[in-house]
């Protein structure tokens, strides 16, 4: 079995100095935000808030200045992501682009794509969505059927993408599709295309309403949609390697264990002063898990800063993080009497209700538990 270690994050004075600045900004920007809205953080879509983060220089933080970035460290970016999520800021208008679409373009995109697209992301203006999953091709991404047929000047794309978060708001999608071979070719013959959703005919976006009754994800149909040749990201046929790299960006951040943070805060508030050993043990245990996950996640940031591939480490953080995020709702429900006339506050009940209907998705999005454990087993050399 491979020896796997999470490197110790170094002391980073610039990042800690930034933390106070970010907290002060958030305290002001989110002053009127109710706890249940804070619990929605990931799904809170607010272009204005994202623009304000961009103006602060807190998006595209690690990218070169010539593309609108700020050439700061992965640790400083970590502080901004951690503080915005812990405070329950509405991040939906920028987080996909800042976390994975922008870094993918920086790594594989053409010079023109970088020059045109990255400054808009760093300014909090340009919204992205992820075009990976399809009907019959979620975990098994290599079974992708969406096909781009080469034509004069580009491709004609036909197929359906599913569960596409935020497609109804997005300006662009990074589309994973088949550019040669058949479904039996699996990973071979796949590519990534940069699709301008606002300027392309032949694309229909239909809402999917989730368990909570909300519209966050969509079905996106391509019907003979023309995509110009210069929309190719990286090389034709190299889509698999590129999409795996994009998923490593997707799984590596603090967002993988902070989804239930608002519920933990409300739970501690409700149990404050309760003379219950069970409550004290539960809060102590959850807090210890939170601190440990944070240490592991900062270890991933340390690897990113050193230019290392954190694939296995990120899968471990996401798997343990999703388990942690899901168990907070279960523990809260058993510790607090939620019957009418009890001590639970209305904020606690609203946040608990929000978490209970959203928690099942925590171990699906970004890769299911079984798939992550397969990646971990391979990384450890036991599979
Ligand atoms: C909130 C949310 C947001 C999402 N946003 C996006 C998005 O923006 N863009 C996008 O492209 N996708 C998105 N997804 C889709 C997500 O990536 C898929 O749901 C996920 O990859 C699983 O695919 P699936 O739903 O097709 O399930 P399946 O792949 O059909 O899996 C069903 C079950 O079978 C298990 N399973 C599958 N294969 C194996 C195997 N080989 N070994 C063991 N068990 C296996 C899975 O673990 C799972 O439990 C989102 C999903 C959610 C819940």
Please explain how this structure is put together.
There is one protein chain. This protein has 383 residues and is of the alpha+beta class. Helices cover 45% and strands 14% of the residues. The strands form 2 sheets. A 4-stranded mixed sheet has the order 1-4-5-8, with helices on one face. A 4-stranded antiparallel sheet has the order 2-3-7-6, with no helix packed on it. The longest helix is centred in the last third of the chain and has 29 residues, at 277-305. It is globular and about 75 Å long. Bound molecules: flavin-adenine dinucleotide. Flavin-adenine dinucleotide binds at residues 129-130, 132-133, 138-139, 163-165, 217, 361, 364-365, 367-368, 370-371.
Portion in beta strands = 5-15%
Main β sheet profile: 4 strands, mixed
Task: Specify the overall morphology.
Answer: globular
Tell me how many strands there are. 8
Q: Tell me the radius of gyration.
A: 21 Å
Which strand order does the major sheet show? 1-4-5-8
Low-pLDDT stretches are none
Derived structural class: alpha+beta
End-to-end C-alpha gap: 10 Å
Give the distinct bound molecules: flavin-adenine dinucleotide
Number of helices: 12
Question: Considering DSSP H and I runs of 4 or more, what fraction of the residues is helical?
Answer: 40-55%
The string of secondary-structure elements, in order, is HHHHHHEEEEEEEEHHHHHH
Oligomer: single chain
Mean pLDDT: 94
Question: What keywords describe this structure?
Answer:
alpha+beta; four-stranded antiparallel beta sheet; 8 strands; globular; binds flavin-adenine dinucleotide
């Amino acid at each position: 079995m491979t020896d796997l270690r999470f490197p110790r994050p170094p002391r980073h004075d610039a990042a800690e100095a930034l933390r106070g600045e970010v907290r002060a900004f958030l305290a002001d920007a989110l002053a009127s935000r109710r706890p249940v809205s804070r619990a929605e953080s990931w799904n809170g879509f607010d272009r204005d808030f994202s623009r304000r983060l961009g103006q602060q220089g807190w998006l595209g933080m690690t990218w070169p200045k010539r593309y609108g970035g700020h050439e700061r460290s992965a640790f400083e970016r970590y502080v901004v992501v951690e503080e915005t999520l812990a405070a329950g800021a509405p991040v939906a208008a920028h987080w996909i682009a800042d976390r994975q679409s922008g870094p993918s373009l920086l790594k594989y995109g053409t010079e023109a794509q970088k020059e045109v697209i990255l400054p808009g992301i760093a300014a909090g203006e340009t919204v992205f969505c992820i075009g990976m999953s399809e009907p019959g091709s979620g975990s098994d991404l290599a079974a992708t059927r969406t096909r781009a047929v080469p034509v004069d000047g580009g491709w004609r794309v036909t197929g359906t993408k599913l569960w596409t978060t935020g497609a109804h708001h997005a300006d662009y999608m990074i589309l994973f599709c088949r550019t040669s071979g058949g479904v039996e070719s699996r990973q071979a013959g796949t590519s990534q295309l940069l699709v301008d959703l606002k300027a392309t005919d032949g694309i229909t976006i239909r809402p999917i309403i989730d368990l909570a009754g909300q519209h966050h994800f969509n079905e996106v149909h391509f019907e003979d949609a023309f995509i110009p040749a210069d929309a190719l990201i990286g090389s034709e046929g190299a889509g698999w390697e590129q999409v795996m790299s994009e998923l490593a960006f997707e799984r590596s951040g603090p967002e993988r264990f902070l989804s239930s943070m608002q519920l933990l805060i409300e739970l501690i508030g409700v149990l404050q002063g309760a003379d219950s050993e069970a409550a004290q043990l539960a809060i102590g245990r959850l807090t210890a898990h939170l601190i440990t996950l944070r240490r592991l996640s900062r270890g991933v940031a340390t690897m990113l800063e050193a230019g290392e591939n954190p694939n296995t480490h990120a899968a471990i953080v996401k798997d343990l993080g999703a388990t942690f995020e899901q168990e907070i709702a279960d523990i809260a429900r058993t510790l607090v009497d939620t019957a009418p006339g009890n001590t639970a506050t209305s904020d606690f009940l609203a946040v608990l209700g929000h978490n209970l209907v959203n928690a099942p998705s925590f171990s699906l999005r970004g890769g299911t538990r079984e798939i992550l454990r397969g990646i971990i087993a391979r990384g450890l050399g036991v599979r």
